[in-house]
Structure formats: structure tokens, C-alpha cells
């Protein structure tokens, strides 16, 4: 694994932003699995990033969906910067690509 710099205040915060750039939208438990960190660390990082205006959180039932803030004043530049930071993160890219992002067919045996 390549060590990522921490331009956003910490490795968890930075890796969380990189994962959100690759996923578009996610929820804390999925992000914790992808990043390999405890869920309370992810939730703390999300609260801080939301307070800083970099991510938005919305409720979908009992689930909190997180995404990069579409109203962030430098959104295009911010997303380009994050995309550039994901280039050396082959492990993170593999983990995101392996996620199942669609529901199972009803009635399909497990």
C-alpha cells in the first residue's frame, strides 16, 4: 500500500474523501469496510468534513448517505485533485471496484 499524504487533516479523512470520489455516494459502514478502519472513526471524519463543507449527509430511512458536496465553491477543482490523489491508490481502487452496488434479484437463493 502506498502511503497517502494527509492534505485534509488526517489519513482517515483523506482516504474517506478519495473513496467518496470513486463511489459517488456511500454510507458509513460501507466506507469503514472499504477503508479498513473502525466505524466510529469514519463517523467522526464525516462529521468534521460535513462541518467543513466538503461532504453532505442525507438520511434515507435509517441510513445516512454521504457524498461530496455538490455545492462546494471549488467542486470541479476539488474533484480533479481527489481523482489525481487516487492514482497511486491501487488497493483502494480494487476494493471499490469489488463492491456490489446493485440489489440482489428477489427470490434468488443465497
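Q: What amino acid sequence fits the structure above?
A:
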Amino acid at each position: 500500500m502506498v502511503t497517502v499524504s494527509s492534505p485534509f487533516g488526517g489519513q482517515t479523512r483523506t482516504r474517506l474523501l478519495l473513496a467518496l470520489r470513486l463511489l459517488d455516494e456511500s454510507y458509513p459502514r460501507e466506507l469503514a469496510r472499504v477503508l479498513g478502519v473502525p466505524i466510529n472513526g469514519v463517523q467522526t471524519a464525516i462529521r468534521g468534513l460535513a462541518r467543513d463543507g466538503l461532504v453532505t449527509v442525507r438520511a434515507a430511512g435509517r441510513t445516512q448517505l454521504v457524498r461530496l458536496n455538490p455545492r462546494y465553491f471549488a467542486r470541479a477543482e476539488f474533484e480533479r485533485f481527489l481523482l489525481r490523489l487516487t492514482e497511486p491508490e491501487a488497493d483502494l481502487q480494487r476494493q471499490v471496484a469489488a463492491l456490489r452496488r446493485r440489489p440482489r434479484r428477489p427470490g434468488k437463493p443465497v
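Q: And what stands out in the fold?
A: The chain has one domain: 11-96.
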